[in-house]
Each structure stands twice: as C-alpha cells, then as structure tokens.
TrEMBL record:
One of its GO terms (molecular function) is translation initiation factor binding. The keyword Nucleotidyltransferase does not apply. Residues 350-378 are annotated as: Disordered. GO terms for biological process: formation of cytoplasmic translation initiation complex. Residues 399-615 form the Translation initiation factor beta propellor-like domain. The lineage of its organism: Eukaryota, Sar, Alveolata, Colpodellida, Chromeraceae. This is Eukaryotic translation initiation factor 3 subunit B. It holds the Pfam family eIF2A. Its main location: cytoplasm. Component of the eukaryotic translation initiation factor 3 (eIF-3) complex.
Length: 722
C-alpha cells in the first residue's frame, strides 16, 4: 500500500467484494441493429473500389452518413466479394435504409438486396437439411362464434355444481333455461364427469375450459367438441390473452415450493415459455400472477422491485429496447400493477417504504432526514403512482402521495379514466381521509396526462365502495355514516374541466355493493350476505335517478351481469375447496346454493336451487366492432331498434301460446274420446243399468250433508312499473 494511505485499512473488507449484489453484471451485446448488409454488388478490383464506395455513399446519403465496409473475396483477393456492410448512427436509419433497398437495381446486371445483419445471422444458423414441423394440435376456428348468430339474440351461461357441468341458453320468452350441452357424450364414453375441477370461458367466449388433474381441455363449436388440451399437472387457474391466441396456466404454488407459470400457443398447443411463480400477484391469489396487455403483445410479471415485460413477438422473451438491451422497469417496493383495458399503458402503485439501511452511515452515526410515514413512522420515500407507456417506457404521469396507507387502482372500462383511490393517515396515525386521483387519459397535453385530486371524504361518513359506469363518464361512491351507520350512494360526472356531483340517494344500511351494467345507465345495489337486499336502479343521461324494483336473494354472494346488459344473475355459490377454510363457507352457503336470473328492470325470469353450486358464468363476448360513437348513437335511438325485437318476442309468445292451446286441445280430445268410448260400452251392456239405478237409490236414501269450501292460493304476482 502506498505510503500515507494506511488510514484506509480500517475501511477495507477481509472478504472479496460481491459485485453481483451491488449491480447487475455487464452483458456482452452481440447484436448489430445499426448494421445493414448489401448483397448483389458488382465484384470490382482495387482500381474501381473507391468509385463503387462513392456510389453507395451517394445512394444512402438520405439515411445519414453510414460507415461502409466492402470486403475483398477471401479466395480471390484481387476483387471484392460483392457485398458491403453499412453501419449507421441510429437504428431507425438502418431500418429505413433496409426498407428502401429490399430489392433495388444498381445497373442492368446488378440488383442490390438489403438485409439486417441480425436476420442474416439467423438465416445462416438454419440447417440445410429440411426438418418437417412437429405435429401439433392444429384446428380451425370456423364455427367458434356460432352462438353470436342466434336469431333470437339469446345469451349462454355455464354452471358448475356437484359433479355436473351444464351450458344453457337464457330464454326470456319461455322464462326458463334451455339446455345446450351437459357432457353427455363424455359420460357415455366412460368418463364420470365432464370436468373434474373448475370451468370457465375464454376471454372472448370462443372456448369453454375444463380443469382436470393432468391439465386443461378446450371445447368449442355448436356440439362442444374438444379441440385441444394442455398438460399442466394440478393446474389451478388460467388466463387467456385478449385475442385468445395465447394462454397462461398456473398451478397455484409459490416459487419456493416449485410453482410455475406456463405460456402456450392456443392453436398449436406449443409451450412457448415457463417461469417460476412471480413473487407479486397483481390480480388475486386465485388468478395467474401475470397480466396481459389489451393488444395481446405483452405479458407483465412482477417482483417486489421490478416489472418484467415479455414480448409475444419473441415467444415471450423479455422485451428489448431499440438498442437490443433488456427493458428493466424498476419500482422499489412495488405493490400493485394494472394495464389499461384498451391501451398498452401500465399503472404502478408503490406504497411508502422505509429507506434501505446503510451500514456505513450507521457506523458513523449519521442520520438521514426523515419524511412523514404512516402511524408516526419515518419514511424517506413517499408513495407514488406512475403511469407509463409500453414499449417506449414514456412516463405519462407521476403522482407522489405522502402519508398514504393504502390505494386501489381502478380503470374505466374503456380506458378513458384511471382512478387511484388513496387512504391517507395523519402524522399521529389517529385519523384518516380518502381521495381519488383522476387521470384523464384522453386529454393528454404535451405528452403528459392531467391528474385531478378529488376528495372522497363526506361529512362523518366513510368510503365503502367505488364503481365506474362501464360505458359512460360517471362513477358511484357508497358511503356509511360513522355515527348512525346510515348509507348513501353519491354519483359524479367527470366533465371536461371538473368532476361534477349529481343527486345522491339514501339506501338501506345492509347495502354494500354497486354493480353497473356493462352498457351503463342501469345498476344494481345489493347486500352481499345474509340480508340479500336488491335494488334495481337507473340513472339516465340527464342525471335522473329511478328505483325500478326492490327484491331480495337470501345469502347472496355473487352478482354477474350478462354482456348485453339485459339480464343479471344473483348467485349463492360455495368455493371448490376440499378441507380447510372451504368447508366453513360450504356449510354457510351450501343449503342456499343456487341462482336467480333477473331482467335489468328487476323482473325475475327464473330461479334454480343447485346443490353445491360452484360457479355461474355468462358466456363472454368479443370486443364490439362498432366505434364508441356508433354505440352511443344506437343507445340514443334504442327505441327504433327495440321495435324489431319486441315484434320478434311477441311472435314467439304467440307461437308458444298456440302450441300450448294445441297441446291442451289434443289432451281434451283424447279425454272426450275416452268418455265417449265408456258411454258406448255402457250402452252395449244393459245388464249393468239396474245396478246403477240401485246405487243411485241408495245414495238418495242416505242423509248426506253437502258442504262447499273455497280455498284460495296465490299462484303468481307481477308488478309492472309504468
């Protein structure tokens, strides 16, 4: 050690420094995204070499000033090899040049063909020996949307109960479910059940997924044929990409216990990638811990300090930037992540976190300047909401929140707005308040999204629920008075410049849920739990509030609107769990398990009690092809369109009535014929006439007392709101 540096000895470690724990190792970049290969050039000697170089420089000057290398042939060193390498300053310049020179004539005998060095490397790495593709589970999707072509525009749903799986049409005319398929073919072939575990529809409703011990199977078409299967032992959950091209399966086990997520190509059945269960699940404990982007191009998985974006174009390898480096989205203390429903935009929530301990500072006795943390703790790093674009990673909005205890990310169904509901606490930790950060995603200005902090604190009331109107610009908030425990629903309209309050409504204290119809306007207020109160309501475009009907569903725990907004199902289901906490829920809800289907106005269509009802699911719809403006126009002129369907429904009702009358007439005719046959037989057997006369005389001689009693019973009762 040099003289004078002896004092540094006390700071030197006795062990070797672990650089990997401090910073990520440097990776060798073997890509050449800025280099383009030209082939088809004339082979020239040294005397014409400079002239050809000048020609190439002139032809490519509009794309920049590339560095050109034109190597000589390794065998014949007196002339060039007929190729050139052009290296540009920017990747975009290289791509533009490649696009221009895909096939361009240089002279009558020579045509330049351009290819990127990366593509050339891939081509050269391919074997000259042809290998036929492996046989996969290929299938066509010609009739996978058949249920959407139903002439009566009925919806389908699937129920899973006991050991049965059944698919039904919802028939509003007959007001009864019509069975479509129940696995009869599979049971006839020797299988005890159609599905051993759960069932669910794919993202757009093309497939029905059944769960088995060995993996999952996909069923499609009018007769529900099995089109493919995926092997994943003890699979517990799946999630489809929005375009249904890819599928993720998960075994429900953490990474430390060997849990894995598989990503599949749906049509070929090929497993594209697999990775350990991520440490952060942005969805729920029962859903695969990954998130699909709305365009199906990206898959996000999260850890406590990073979001990794996997690209579908590279079979779900980590996303790389234009320079070929892996994209790393670092978010220390990450707690929640969510994609926009319509755009490749991520919203990330980071709660307050304590700064990492610095052993060197502790040794020296230094103290960092603390900020305010929850419940009087200190935290240098406050909570933060970040909204960024993928794959550019452009920061669209960032909001820092101090003293934040909790937050929820709530996207509008059309991606027009993002609400982040934040609960903050005072420095003493004795009081709390709520506010909603409203991000106006369609009002971007100068590359950033405007954010409005909207208080959700009401006088002596606490926030209990928040729900966006799925196809409008309004949201509803349920509050409870902390003293009287009375409840109110407040409505707000997100106008262009401000959030405007609408008239609130008082609701019974058991109400704890707000469920908007997918088409907006109509919503259901409900009490999940033993009370089961239901309030069917509407809020028109002018803000007029109306209660359409009140009813109840005892022990209600699920509410599911159909995709068309015409019907809503209220269900009492039990979890499909063996042993443990699942038994308690099964005992609580098991005796009442079943479902009821209602019209959006609250008219009960039918109800069914089902032993051990595990799930009720409406069949999903693909995204509408019409624009938001066209859909709004249809809603405005709904009465014009509804006349056609009213006429069709009336024709079906009349047809049903005629069929009933014909059936009753046939039964009456059969009865009349039987009576006539008996009378004919009696007329042909006169010897019985005296016996009948004596029996009548005996009855007349008895002192019978004739008494008439009238019993009244209410069979059905309907209330119609006019």
């Amino acid at each position: 050690m040099p003289s004078g540096d002896e004092d540094l000895l006390e700071y030197m470690s006795d062990t070797e420094e672990d650089l990997a724990s401090i910073e990520a190792p440097i990776e060798l970049d073997t890509s050449f995204p800025k280099t383009v290969l030209f082939t088809g050039l004339p082979k020239v000697g040294q005397d014409r070499h400079e002239k050809l170089m000048n020609v190439l420089k002139k032809m490519t000057s509009e794309f920049g000033a590339p560095k050109i290398e034109m190597p000589f042939d390794t065998k014949n060193k007196d002339e060039t090899a007929g190729v050139a390498f052009l290296t540009f300053n920017e990747v975009k310049q290289a791509r533009d040049c490649q696009g221009e020179f895909v096939e361009k004539k240089l002279d009558a005998k020579h045509t330049i063909k351009a290819i990127s060095v990366e593509d050339f490397t891939k081509l050269m790495a391919k074997s000259d020996t042809y290998t036929p593709p492996a046989k996969g589970n290929f299938f066509t999707r010609e009739k996978f949307r058949w249920w959407l072509e139903d002439e009566r525009c009925r919806e389908q749903f699937v129920i899973r109960y006991s050991d049965m799986t059944e698919v039904f049409w919802n028939d509003p005319v007959s007001r009864a479910p019509v069975l479509v398929y129940n696995g009869e073919r599979e049971r006839a072939s020797g299988a005890k059940v159609w599905s051993h575990g759960r069932v669910e529809w794919s993202a757009s409703g093309s497939y029905l997924v059944t769960f088995h011990k060995q993996g999952i199977a996909l069923w499609a078409g009018p007769d529900f044929q099995k089109v493919t299967k995926f092997e994943h032992s003890l699979v517990s959950a799946v999630c489809f990409s929005p375009d249904e091209e890819y599928l993720c399966s998960w075994d429900g086990v953490s990474a430390k216990d060997g849990g894995q997520v598989f990503v599949w190509n749906v049509r070929t059945g090929k497993k594209l990638t697999a990775f350990p269960t991520p440490s952060v699940n942005p969805r729920s404990d029962k859903a695969p811990p990954v998130l699909w982007s709305p365009d199906s191009k990206y898959l996000a998985r999260c850890s406590t300090d990073e979001v990794v974006i996997l690209s579908a174009s590279s079979e779900f390898a980590p996303l790389k930037d234009t320079g070929g480096s892996r994209v790393r989205l670092k978010f220390e203390g990450l707690a929640s992540v969510s994609w926009s429903p319509t755009d490749s935009i991520l919203a990330v929530w980071q709660p307050e976190r304590m700064p990492p301990k610095d052993p060197k500072k502790e040794k020296e006795g230094e103290k960092s300047t603390p900020g305010a943390g929850p419940a009087g703790q200190t935290a240098e790093m406050p909570a933060r909401v970040t909204v960024l674009q993928i794959p550019t990673r452009k920061d669209l909005a960032t909001k820092t929140i101090y003293n934040a205890r909790d937050a929820r990310i709530l996207w509008h169904a059309r991606g027009d707005f993002l609400a982040v509901n934040v609960t903050t606490v005072s420095k003493s930790g004795k009081s709390s308040s709520n506010q909603s950060l409203i991000f106006r995603m369609r009002q971007m200005s100068k590359g950033s999204v405007p954010v409005e902090a909207f208080p959700l604190d009401f006088k002596e009331a606490s926030l209990r629920a928040f729900a966006w109107e799925k196809s409008g610009t309004r949201f509803a908030v349920l509050t409870e008075n902390e003293i009287t425990h009375s409840k109110k629903v407040h409505f707000f309209h997100v106008a262009k410049d401000a959030v405007e309050p609408l008239d609130p409504m008082d609701v019974p204290s058991p109400i704890n849920t707000i469920e908007w119809a997918p088409g907006g306007t109509y919503f259901l207020l409900a009490s999940k739990g033993p009370d089961g109160s239901l309030m069917f309501c509407s809020l028109d475009e002018k803000g007029k509030l109306e209660i359409l009907h009140k009813d109840e569903h005892f022990m209600l725990n699920e509410i599911i609107w159909d995709p068309s907004s015409r019907f809503v199902a209220t269900c009492t289901t039990i979890p499909m769990i063996t042993g443990g906490a699942g038994n308690a829920a099964a005992l609580r809800y098991g005796s009442e398990s079943g479902y009821s289907v209602w019209s959006f106005q609250g008219r009960l269509q039918y109800k069914a009690q089902k032993e051990k009802l595990y799930s009720f699911q409406w069949r999903s719809h693909p995204s509408p092809l019409l624009s938001a403006e066209k859909l709004s126009e249809i809603r405005t002129n709904l009465k014009t369109y509804s006349r056609k369907f009213d006429r069709v429904d009336e024709e079906l009702r009349q047809k049903s009535i005629r069929a009933f009358e014909e059936s009753r007439k046939k039964e009456m005719d059969a009865f009349t014929s039987a009576v006539a046959a008996i009378r004919k037989w009696k007329s042909e057997h006169k010897k019985n006439a005296q016996w009948e006369k004596d029996l009548k005389d005996w009855h007349d001689s008895q002192d019978f007392v004739m008494r008439e009693e009238v019993h009244e019973e209410l069979i059905d009762q309907e209330e119609t709101v006019i």
